[in-house]
Design goal:
Elements (H helix, E strand, L loop, with lengths): L1 H15 L6 H9 L6 H23 L8 H15 L5 H13 L4 H29 L1 H16 L8 H24 L4 H18 L7 H23 L10 H17 L6 H12 L4 H38 L1
Length: 323
């Protein structure tokens, strides 16, 4: 509810940023949008989900598991569906789905999820670096602007007091969790959590024993290339942003990805961050927000349609396998 509230607030707050005399431009941009472009975006992003499923399978092999690709894909899409409600819930859910249908220990799979997310963070960092190189004047300025808002003091400079408070809080939380684990060591829930932590460790070390490292890296590259292509095609959907090229698409993806992390399915945050980047590229905020809303809705629709189809097909496919 907290993350959903943040998303709803960002939708409301973003709409307040549109001047009264620009509302017609915002609505007109959505009315004139080329909705046919949602079709190629549908296949591009669906392809990225298939590649993500194939990449996840590679991580399971060193652990001695080789689940069927359809089940892995079903689990991934149902996980995305769950993420629309609560961020990161889907990461746990897709592990339990495979544990049920493929008899793979869920705690071991959580380790592979950590590896996946670590590579996604590295990939996102590369996208940011690429955007920074291609649009140094735009991304550099926006990045500094965001950093100042987070850690700026009254003087207008970076506040080391704020940084110190954040670091101290993190250290206290880690020490407190450690003490609680020691004190309640006998409880079954603590034992279960320790098993998960051990599983995470095994998942992280599994990267050393990958038999298909080249394929794993290739899948990672193509996943993010498809994200970039999907964003670029999405920019072409509205008149005010159709002229923007690949560098703007990379920059938009970099910052919009942050929105996908902080709210369920990126509601509110995805469109806001994308609009702010497009604004730096000379596109008015209302047009950028219209495009961001359209792109977010396309991704939301893909997850809803494919996710629900996978939810229905999952028991049917496995019942057919048994028969």
């Amino acid at each position: 509810m907290l993350f959903l509230s943040i998303g709803i607030f960002l939708v409301w707050w973003s709409l307040q940023q549109i001047p009264a005399d620009k509302w017609e431009d915002f609505k007109g941009s959505l009315k004139k949008a080329n909705y046919w472009l949602m079709i190629p975006v549908f296949f591009v992003l669906s392809g990225s989900h298939v590649l993500r499923s194939m990449r996840w399978k590679i991580l399971m092999k060193p652990l001695g598991f080789s689940p069927k690709l359809p089940n892995v894909f079903f689990a991934v899409m149902v996980g995305y569906l769950a993420n629309l409600a609560i961020p990161r819930l889907g990461e746990v859910l897709k592990c339990t789905i495979l544990a049920r249908y493929e008899k793979v220990p869920a705690e071991k799979l959580i380790g592979t999820i950590v590896v996946e997310r670590a590579f996604d963070v590295i990939s996102l960092a590369i996208v940011f670096l690429t955007a920074f190189i291609l649009q140094y004047d735009i991304i550099g300025e926006y990045g500094v602007e965001l950093s100042k808002k987070l850690f700026e003091g009254k003087s207008g400079n970076i506040s080391f007091i704020k940084l110190g408070i954040v670091l101290t809080a993190l250290i206290i939380i880690v020490l407190l969790i450690k003490k609680l684990f020691q004190f309640f060591n006998h409880l079954s829930i603590v034992v279960a959590i320790k098993k998960i932590i051990i599983g995470i460790g095994e998942g992280l070390t599994s990267i050393q024993h990958l038999q298909q490292k080249g394929r794993f890296i290739a899948y990672s590259v193509f996943i993010w290339l498809l994200y970039i292509i999907g964003t670029w095609v999405g920019l072409m959907a509205t008149e005010g942003s159709a002229h923007l090229g690949l560098p703007a698409a990379i920059s938009a993806l970099a910052f919009a990805s942050i929105g996908m992390i902080i709210t369920p399915g990126g509601i509110g945050a995805y469109a806001f961050f994308l609009a702010k980047v497009l604004e730096k590229n000379g596109v008015s905020f209302e047009i950028g927000f219209a495009n961001g809303t359209l792109q977010w809705f396309a991704q939301f629709l893909i997850v809803m349609i494919v996710g629900f189809c996978c939810l229905i097909l999952l028991p049917w496919y496995n019942k057919k396998r048994i028969q």
